[in-house]
Amino acid sequence: MAQTAQAHPEMQAPLALVQAASNGGVLTLTLSNPPANALSIAMMEALKGALDRARADNDVKVVVLAHEGKVFCAGHDLKEMTAHRADADRGRAFFTETMGLCSDLMQTIVRHPKPVIAAVGGVATAAGCQLVASCDLAVAAHGARFATPGVNIGLFCSTPMVALSRNVSRKHAMEMLLTGQMIDAETALSFGLVNRAVPAEALNRTVSELAQSIASKSPLTLKIGKEAFYAQIEMGLTEAYDYAARVMVENMMARDAEEGIGAFIEKRKPEWKGE
Fold first, then answer.
1. pLDDT band at 263 (very low <50, low <70, confident <90, very high)
2. pTM over 0.85
3. What radius of gyration, in Å, describes the C-alpha atoms of the chain?
């Protein structure tokens, strides 16, 4: 992201696996364990910890997930997982811990009160593709590639499937899951996995402009809207409308809605209070 961003030492993740920098209400969390930026236990704990701290930080309006190196995230650390084959249970307990922590991390992103944007400048595979799909928005550089290649090594991408199937059509999800083949950024855009595909040199600028646009909105409204979006999408039509209507009424009662509507009528810039 922007080179002028200032690091917040209090938000640095353990072992510097995730670097945190804030600029204008946008917190950038950078996966910093190249070349693979693999989702080891330590990496997932570091990222979840940074997201949890961002949840409570009123200065953070938007979170961006970025990466060092040519790989956004290659998924789980297969060497770490294979090493536990030597455990008495052949790794079952460790595999259970890994998948449980990964599920918690992905749900932390979906349930986070702040919008989360993935800035993908490289390869995102398996749980790394799941990470992209779990974010609210994603922007990819033209050189980025995506895959759920578990089927190629005898391990179907079942947990990545959850996020993937909630973002792209069933046919596209099954194509990725059954073939394990890489797709480019333009294909990912056509599938609906990412919002925009841009030249590599425009990635940071595009993400920054998108994040700053969102950060200028009422933080309370963003929180209400994001929570309502993911809640209603799992409901039937009638239930969804009943729920959304209740949310709209409560939103109308908020001070920020009163201020925003008043500012619109009076043709002035609103002053958000987050309440």
1. confident
2. yes
3. 19
